[in-house]
Amino acid sequence: MAEVATRTLCIDIGGTGVKGIVYDPTGAPLSERIRIETPRPATPAAVLVTIEQIASKVGDFDRVGAGFPGVVVDDITLTAPNLDEGWDGFRLGDALMSRFGKPVRIANDADVQGLAVIQGRGVEMVLTLGTGLGSGLYVDGHLVPNLELAHHPFGKHRGESYEDRVDEATRKEIGLKRWARRVLEVIEQIQPIFNPRRLYLGGGNAKRLDRAKLPENVTVVDNVAGLMGCAKLFDQKVGLTG
Question: Which comes out higher in pLDDT, residue 17 or 157?
């Protein structure tokens, strides 16, 4: 009997938009990419309704993978700085399984994005530049979950975190040129700490950077990786719990 292809509904929950698409096992899209504005307030109930709206538009699927903008342990969301306080301790995996009756895997959204682009050799990192700042760490292809570099104090700038320096609100406030210089400062600071073989820049704002000014080991990747990586969550044998 021929093996039935596994269709993954991939959901990217963001601070400004919730996106979804269905991929086959090879990474080929089986539906259109759907984007709906993140509801405000972005409570669990409201976001779940949005996910259901997306699911109703993409056709059949066999499992659900989701990227979430905060710390996720055992498919439970622990933080959500750019959403709503109601996500603290929310059992998102159980909620999605209850609605769809399908296997579910969930991880931090930056962690998910990296799974779509890493080469699987040595230490690799991803930074996502969007509403906030996301970060992911991988060793020989295995995810080290929930790095959350964004909320660590940034060097000499007392009282400012990495995210404070380069988030979307700051970009709009100080302008693209100053913001881009700050991104380079962030890269310069983390390189000698983690010594990544490759560093990938994703998120909606990564495309705004001048690629010619980036270090040799830094690559800008398409923001669609935030969806594609959701299917790869099911391939991770370790690294999804904390």
Answer: 17
